[in-house]
Every structure is written in structure tokens, then in C-alpha cells.
User: Fold this.
Amino acid sequence: MNRWLVIVLVGLLAACGGSSNSGSSNEETNNDGGSDGGEITTPPVTGGEDNTPPETPASYGVPTVTQIRPGVEISANGSGCTGNFLFSPNSQTVYIGVAAHCFSLDSNDGIDPCESSNLPIGFNEVEIENANEPGEIVYSSWRAMQESGETAGSNACTYNDFALVKIHSDDVANIHPASFAFGGPVSLFTGLASVGDAVYAYGRSPYHLGLRLLEAKSGSVSAVLGNGWAYQIVTDKASIPGDSGGPIFGPNGQALAVTSVLTLSLGLGAAPVSNGVTNLDRALQYAIDGGFINASTKLITWPDFYPRGNF
Assistant:
């Protein structure tokens, strides 16, 4: 199929057209890492793929539900998505990642991303959950690929779905790199994941009604797509409209991918659920290599990861 952003969801809206209302009611994490006064029952996974130290040392306190974190709702121009990871090129600037199609006017019309119409770089009316000020689009892979002259229908055009929103300077003091549900990311997953690798996904669609049981998902890589540009993953629960852009973790809590395509199997029952996700390492490198973002832009990490999703 030439067009990867086709959504096969019965009775639901297109992925990037979910509600833009923010404020899902997740539990606040206490000093023990639990929620609502409970305790974490699963020991955290620490370190990278080989249990190596995280890329940056932990320098943040205990995360709370009122902070700007991986998994917050992000909305613009009437569309709602989920933010993924935090990135920073310097000590004063912080970006939050999302899917590029969340900022496109053509994301559900069957138009190739490299021929689509998108919100402009510098658009500064992006609503970020828990932020007092709107954010600003500083990078969109769909715009970048058009500027670079990528050929419509190519692997890059089909699968590269990543954007960055600059968090307003007034809100930078209220960030935390730990994702809702899982914590982490402990590092950036570099190279390619393998079929069968465990994955963990989070989505903040309002259709989950703030239920952590529905927001946190686990599964595995079922295919490598587009010569490594993306993965197909199978998870235990569905990602639904509003989950697009959300974080995907690798086996040991690495930042692996970004939720891009939502597809639901039509067999009996709700499982298996298959999603297309953009390879974050490849997408971030494309932005850097093309000079669209500063080469010093790095993932902001958190050393503890809780694979059961009860953080």
C-alpha cells in the first residue's frame, strides 16, 4: 500500500482527529513510585539495551501528573494527539515530540506526506497538557521531506512521521522526562529492533476515559517496515484516535518509536491489534542530518522503567 496513514478502526474517527480536550485523570505518583499511595510491585528496569547507564543522569524529582511529560495530550488546529519524548538542544530549550501527521491538514485524505499541506514551522498555538503557554512547531518531517525533495511514495515519505514542539520558556521548569505509566526512557534505542522484541506503548486519547488499564499497552515487534523506517507492532489493547504520536518503548525502556498508524484486526475479539510506528532513531537522525534541528538535540532520559505500566 502506497499510503501508510490509512486507519482501519471500526466506528472511530481518524487517528489524528481525536478530541483536543486535555486533562485525562491519571493517578499522581508518590515518593515510592506508586499511584494513589500504592506501591510499585514490579522492580524497575534500568540502563540501556545491555543494562548500560542511561545517556544522561537523573536530575529531576519525583514526577507528578501536573508536569509536562511523555504522554501528555497535544492539540492544534482542532486535532488531538499524544506527545512522546522530551528532547533538548541546550540547557534553555526543551522540545516534546509528536507525530507530524497531527499537524497536517491532509493526514486523513489519502495524500502522500511529501505532497501534503501542513501547519507552518513557527505555528505557536499548540496546546500542551499541563502547560500554561502554547507551544511552537519547530520541526515537521512532512515539511522537511518536501524541502529535501523526497520522492512521493518512497520509504521516507511513507514512514517518516515525526515532529517537535518547543515548550514555552515559562513552562520549562515544569517538565519531567518520565512517561506516564512506564517511566523511562532510559536511553535512545539505536539501530534496528528485531521481530519478537518486546514493546510498550502509551496513549492519552480521551476515549480511554483516563483509565491507565487502557492507556498502557504491551506487545512485540511483528515486522520491520520500509527498510527500517518503521515497525509494525502487535499489542494487547487497541491504540485509538488521540493516541497518535505517543511513545513506544523497547524491551528495556529505550525510546524506540512514535505511534503513527492505527489499525485494528477484524477477527473475533479485540486482539491482536496491529499498529504502525515510526523508528525514532531514524526520524531524529533525518532531522539532524538535514540541518532542520540542531545537531546537539538529545533525548532527555529517566533511569527507571516499569514494564507493567503501573508507574
Summary: The radius of gyration is 17 Å.
